[in-house]
Amino acid sequence: MARKALVTGITGQDGSYLTELLLGKAYEVHGVVRRTSSLERSRLQPLYADPTTYGKRLFLHYADLDDPTTLRRVLMKVAPDEVYHLAGQSHVGLSFEIPESTCEMTAMGTLRLLEMLRDLPTPPRLFHAASSEIFGRPANAPQNEETPFNPVNPYGAAKAFAAQMVRIYREAHRLFAVNGILYNHESPRRGENFVTRKICRAAAAIRRGTQSELLLGDTSARRDWGHTQDYVLGMWLSLQHETAQDYVFASGVLHSVQDVVETAFQAVDLDWRAHVRQDARFMRPAEPLQLVGDPSRARRVLGWTASTSFEDLIRGMTLAELEG
Q1: DSSP state of 123
Q2: Which of 28, 247, 292, 316 is 20 to 30 Å from 50 at the Cα level?
Q3: How far is the C-alpha of 160 from the C-alpha of 172, rounded, in Å?
Q4: How do beta strands 222-223 and 247-249 pair?
Q5: How far is CA 72 from the centre of its chain?
Q6: Closest to 111 in 3D by CA, of 100, 92, 126
Q7: Helix (H), strand (E) at residue 198
Q8: Where in the chain are all domains bearing CATH 3.40.50.720?
């Protein structure tokens, strides 16, 4: 009998790649979608439109993290072997504008899910998508699984709460629960309001002549970037190990937003200096520093590596925009 996986946030970037991975491993995949959200499921469209997949190996269920009844009903009906909890408000800049709803969905939504899993007769294995933003302004670099939490934005604070609750439920209630501390991971499916996609999209549009300039905030900001396909493999591997523990998933290499700009514009044979302008509206109130991960535990225990180079990631995203 096929193993069953339940994925919250299945229509997002991570959820779509994870779904493809799980289907490729002969899982029966169930996804949670919000009834109040847009019916836009473009990332899942090829699977959704395939009659040999949708309704046979892939199923979508309406439920919401702030409505325990609907989510509990789905859990009872599906009885999954594994749960991948990816849902939540995941835009750092936006979290300053909507801090309450960010915390409600990301922090309290995770706690509600943990309580439901705890009550099940046979609790499934849980992967929780944590974030490097829990470290905020770390005292040391690179960061590992023992680095203290020190978030500097509402999103990071909500994720820190959720990650700590996962640890508590793992120890106090013996749940097989894993925090995957995910550093920035991108792909052509990244939301358009994220800076990497914004840059790649703009470079392609300028190349086509449909846009003239790109407005950005602080391009000196540095991040540890990798490809989402590598990171969802880490999610799956973490639930196949015999014991539950937390893992940092990262490339271990820092690059600046400026590096993204130069790589993207180079991919379409343009001089970025002629098109990129700084705009104070895109400056963030508090910018994390030196967020770079140490993935040695994931490499040692799971055999995981971030195999896609930064240059290939950004070039691929830009060319996908050009072709799209």
Answers
A1: P
A2: 316
A3: 18
A4: unpaired
A5: 23
A6: 126
A7: helix 195-208
A8: 4-185+228-249
CATH code reported for the domain at 188-223+254-292+308-323: 3.90.25.10
Place of tokens 């990301």: 106
Rounded Cα distance between 80 and 233, Å, is 19
Question: CA–CA separation, 315 vs 221, rounded Å?
Answer: 20
Give me the pLDDT at residue 10, please: 95
Q: What was the pLDDT predicted at 67?
A: 85
Does pLDDT of 39 surpass 50? no
Q: CA 204: distance to chain centroid? A: 24
Backbone angles phi, psi at 41, to 5 degrees: -130, 45
CATH fold group of domain 4-185+228-249: Rossmann fold (3.40.50)
Give per-residue pLDDT as tens, 94-131.
Answer: 767 778 888 889 999 999 999 999 999 999 999 999 99
**C-alpha separations of 125 from 86, 243, 280 in Å:** 14, 10, 44
Which residues are catalytically annotated?
131, 133, 155
Residue that is written with structure tokens 């950004």 in the block:
314
> Could you write out the DSSP letters of every residue in 204-216?
HHHHHTS---EEE
* Segment 17-27, tens digit of pLDDT: 999 999 999 99
Q: Where in the chain is the domain with CATH 3.90.25.10?
A: 188-223+254-292+308-323
CA distances from 224 to 170, 189, 216 (A): 28, 18, 19
Q: Report the run of H or E that residue 277 belongs to, with start and end.
A: strand 276-278
Please give the full DSSP string across 67-89, using - where no structure is assigned.
Answer: BHHHHHHHHHHH--SEEEE--S-
In whole angstroms, how far apart are CA 200 and each of 6, 123, 215, 244, 260? Answer: 32, 42, 13, 37, 8
> Tell me, what amino acid is at 222?
R
